[in-house]
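Self-study notes.
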Amino acid sequence: MRIYHAEHYDDMSRKAANILSAQVILKPASVLGLSTGSTPVGLYRQLAEWYRKGDVDFSGVTTVNLDEYQGLAPDDPQSYARFMRENFFDHINVKRENTHLPDGLAADAERECARYEAILRDSGGLDMLLLGIGHNGHIGFNEPGGAFEKGTHLVTLTQSTIEANQRFFPSADDVPRHAYTMGIRSIMQARTIVVVVSGASKAGIVRRAFAGPVTPEVPASVLQLHNNVILVGDREAMKQLRIEN
């Protein structure tokens, strides 16, 4: 695992954006796995700025997002499809037909999961996957206690995840209770995984994920078993991390 220490959120965003932009520059037809949430917003903003300057071209890129809420239409203000458009896709030249998210309105959940796995397979696999970590250690919506061997599946969100996401909705009652997510098996098949973390509230889970035992109770801990993980975190998020070589 490679670790990049950043001074603050903006520094973390720029360092991580450098890694993703280098991937696209070196392989213009890269398949990128992307995530949502507050942590990658600065990274997306930096990539969009470099695109406007002509430093990076996304026209050949394919993107496959980690997850989507079940029951939300793509234009719903809280859907991840809309998040990606507003925070990234609308600001770069990626082809819309090459951007993929689970269909939150799919009538058949099992068929939707199979469709998404087929997208991952037919794309040739993820060259680089961007991840954040939830306060309970989830990656994507793979919650504590889940099985490591799952592919894309429908999950029931834990109360802690519902509470963490409540800030994006009028109330906790409005947060969807289910979501589609890439499974741990799908995540671990990415060739390179970039993890971004920011803020003191993530310090404890960063320590447990990367310096504790590998356990389904901390889903992100499985990343210790991947052979090409890059961790980019700011000072506050990394302050408890001590890894013995």
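Second protein, same conventions, sequence then structure:
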Amino acid sequence: MSTAVEDGFVGVRFREETNLTLCASQGTIYAQGDSVIVDVDGHGPTFGRVERSPMPVFKPCQKSGARPILRLADDQDRTAFERQIANELAARRYCQERAKNLNLDIKISRVDFSLDAHHGIFYFTSEGRVDFRQLVRDLAQRFSVRVKMVQVGARDEAALVGGIGVCGRTLCCSTWLKDFRPISIGMAKRQSLSLNPSKISGQCGRLLCCLAYENDQYDDPKKRPRSPVIADYE
């Protein structure tokens, strides 16, 4: 695999994310530590910090997916970002309390506001379908944003929230793992692992995704070909 380091790309970290996002500098030189405003699909202008300059490009297709840097962040952007974080915390508390008052059986996982405070995405989990129309109206009126409610599953919630796994490392789903493979208890049995739920369950309460990592390296007795029986006659 060829690796090229090009001045036109830098690695930007958003919030407390573990992974760096490849961003196109568009002819401007950005140094490590610079605060920048990046155009991120679905979120609009987003505040981030350059953590690697230049950034290695491993595949040509990565260039097309690089997010464009709009400009260096100024004092107004920093103030807007601080206000954004405060509003997200307040919105999460308010949304959970308001949902309880409306007898909605939901759990608010995370709230993302845009830097310009025009849009707000509320991620939630629920066992079934929820009529949240009144909740949306209350949120829009309280925070003056266009509200979008997004229902996520247990694994997606863990990826959004993040945390430390039983292995002591940052959750795979919140760093590099993007596709969830089907996981079965048979994988744990095949690897001779403890079947204690606390040992093989992740933060999401589901079976550990890492059970699938080495599963193919273990023989399945049911699929193992039978050895031919050779009779020894004298």
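Instructor comment on the second fold: Residues 1-5 have pLDDT under 50 and may be disordered.
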